[in-house]
Records
---
Amino acid sequence: MNKTIPIYLVLLTLLGGYGGCGFKPDKVETPRWTTEILAPLVKAPLSSEEVVQLKEVNFDKEFKMSDIGVPNGNYPMLPPIPPVSLPPYTLSTSADIASITFASGKMAMTIQNNLPINLKAGATITIEAGTSVFFTHTLPNDINPGTTYIMTPEYDVTGKTIYQNPTLKVTNFASDGKNSPVTINGTEKLSISFTIKGLKVQNIGLASNNNFEIADTSDFSIAGANVKTGEISGKFVLFADNQMPIQVKAQAYFLDSTKTVIDSLFVGGTQMITAATVDGSGFSNSTVTSSVNIPFSTEKFEKIKPAKYLKSYAKVSTGSGAPTVFIRNTDKLTLQLVADIKVKIENKEN
Amino acid sequence: MKKTYFILLAFVASYAQAQYNLSTTYCEHNDLNASRYEPSELHLGKKHVQIGSSFYFWIANNALDYGTIKKFRQGTALTDQEIDNFVNNLEEKNQIGAGQDFQIAGIGLQLGKMDFSFSAVDKFAMEMNYSQNLMKLVWKGNKQFAGQRTQLGPLSFNAQYTREYALGTAFNIAGNLEKGIRVGARGKYIQGMASIYMPKSDLYLTTASDGRSIETEFDYKLQTTGIKNFNGMNFNGMGYGVDAGISAHISKHFEVNASVLDFGAVTYNKDVKTYEKKGKYTYEGAVISNFFGDPRYNADSITSLFKPTETSGESYTMNLGTKILLQGELKWGGNMDEELEDEEYQGHSIFLTYIQGLNNMPGATTKPYLSVAYNYDLRRMFDFGVSASMGGYNKYAVGAFFAFNFAHIIKFGIGSDNLMPLVQPKLGTGADVSVNLSLAF
């Protein structure tokens, strides 16, 4: 994925702009001076959805004729099938996520019947986990062979919770059969697919001792930045205000045009953003602030100048031995970059 | 004795400064032009009519000296130390002022024991206020203010261009000019052509000690009139003012004068634009949304916070630069009768003047001002002298003045309260010049 991260451009634009300003009539030599800046540069409040990167939920299942007791072979006709239950199927979801409770969202269901027989009205499709039913729907009409059924209206998932690896059940499956010869070779399928769109998460449950990684490579360039400052020294400080019960180890790497690492953002490896503490139910009850100093100098600036890409990396994890923890949609992980630098402003000719 | 006086003057001059056109009061004492600053001093002597015109220009500030400006203009880089010194030597609140008075026409009449005057004067004055903290911020950045709520204001600019018509009189209410009390007053009708007025210019900056936020609080109001389509004959405001004074002639050698000048105001009610904004904004960095998607940030919303609301049609009142002037004059030498054309006459006067502005408006400052001057009058034909002053808009000033009275009819004078840039550039923070011309018969 290529995209632009403005955080650095903002910073460098600021430095470039600061260093570049100057009153410069023909005969007047602009003064040189050193100024100390202590100021927030950028702030990125990350929501639970951004951290977990949950944009859309998809899952599907295909049933074959064998699932309804009809093995491959040639048949002069297929008799009507009385209502039966198809074998329950476990939908595979992310191993990282124990549950998702939706604040809003619509789930679409599409059934494509590529079986040689119809699916009679009255069949019921259910998604459940244990005794918790997430979704159930009964077909209002028959689905004839070679046709597609699209559930209307879409299912409103607001307030619903889906747990890890739920079970898909199709019950009351019935068919009128087929009165002509038919060959079953295993390619005949009944496909049921689900897509949850426009979702807003109320909370996300993460199992204990769980971790997942986010890595991303963005376009990055400061080659054109006109930093006229003669000298920059000091540091940037990355603050993290974490309301989420997860810890994050982060690092970013500057890559050249061959995607070879030329420098890293943090000196001394990945930096830890401490998890918020949780209550007995697994919800955070605090905001934990941590900070990382990023020494900065003109040399550092020159070193990263050839960079063409920025690879950011974050390892998100829950604590070992802790119960399932929940990230609410109101929980934020706010990153803030503060400049604490001394800039020597110089006349360009100096 | 004379030598002692000169040594004293020279000593004071080296520590002193000005912008009140006192050279006119020292050199043109008692005449029409000087009475604009001391109404009770209007006295035409044995003349009955005086016609006069005068011009006065001044520019001053309390911090930046001419030596530094000159060096900067010559292309010589200022050293860090020089700029450090400038910033560190600033006062908490600082002023830059400039102005000019042009008395287009003035007429004085003496009828019996009363003197009367009429004058029409075009006046322009401006003043800018700025704080030391603001300059410190520009020079050394905001880190020095971490953890503090810092007042960066005032940062204001006021200016006013008016035309005033004044009718005045002066007369003795007791005794005579050798020993007695004389009062004088001038009533003024004022037309306002243009003005810029900033009654509020508060600005506070709070930098969090860890740098995570910068909070600005601002409350400013700017009102203008006659700026876009300036016309010297287009009057956007009207007002009234009063000058009043009293002179006590203790003896023929000593008198004191107290005057209140420019008491009044001008109300502008045409072509008025008002810009104002009050608010508080905490900046915590440009907010990036959708960090792991397609990052976006928007800095426009920050500038919009400071964008003022603009309204038209209001009216506002600007006070005149009101001040109190106290002056003592010690005089000796020759016959004090001013009309004696005594070829042997050698008059000496020493003046001590204190001025206290009652507001910070164009032409006035609440910073007190003190001046001492010596005037030598030779044969009632030549006046010349020197002055030294401190305070007001300037730091220190020395001045000189000269007047020539031709045939006791035509008097031409030129003077300055502030020639310090020529004398001591590193101490000179302003300059002024006055030119007076009068015809008496």
---
Amino acid sequence: MRFWGAVAVCSMAITTSLAAAEFHQAPWMSSAKCTTPDAIAADSDLARLTSWPAVYRSFRRYKQCDDASIGEGYSDKIVILLTEHWPAIKALSGLTKANPEFERFVLWHVDELMSPEQGKTIIDNAHNHCPAAAEKLCQRLEVKARNPS
Amino acid sequence: MIRANEFPKIPKGWLDGASTNAEDADTASAPIQVASTLDYDGATKQLTLTRGDGTIQQFPANNNAQRNSRGKWEDGTFAYGYPKTHPDDSPDSAYGSHGIHVFRVPGAEGLGVHSGRESVPDQLGRPGVDHATKGCIRTTDDGVAAISDAISAGDPVTHITVRNNGQE
């Protein structure tokens, strides 16, 4: 009896653990550090994210607000840069070498929100059009675009 | 001259507060609007806007949170925060044609109701309201427009109630 009780408790714990593990937020996100004015400013900043230096500045200032709609906006702008402005990958490569956490931020946002077409474009760009100085970054981008979950 | 501890005297014939006489009731003026409320039912995937005058509008909606996100919106009632629009808002943009209405959810920033991706699929091939989000409820452009209309009409949404939205 005691054995089956223990099994039941263990089973419940595993189920709860799996449910909790299904979703995971960006590790740099912190609701305690992201004030509402920060969140509004981060949202307003999204319209200016048309280059990698602009994305990097926003990451430095507002990464703690990378949540919900603001995170959706980052994903949108990052995928647009990787699909419609691929030659700028050299600038991204320089920034990610200087700040590895920024590379994780970019890879994080190559996610399920992008369209299948955008995913294919990133894979093609990373596989077939990668500048020599950005090979490792291209490999990681290709892996993430193939497995964006 | 200022006199402390003395209320002004009301002249005879002036009304002081509501009349108790039924014949004095104001039937000509429009009824006073109270605030609108928003309700999202995760089981029926419907967003219901109830205006202050009792008018009910329903819109399809979904809360398909992707894995690398905070997950689905928890059940409960949450106060309205603020609206936010963007220069590139359009039917297929990240937030739709009318931006986002953000609610005050403990531990979250930027969690709200928006539309967008009307004809753009996500990685699982889902366009429209079923397109994945990072926790926000996605509805139609009409749904967000109705919320914005309530606000501009002086009938603001005060809160959203999320129900039957258990994490699968």
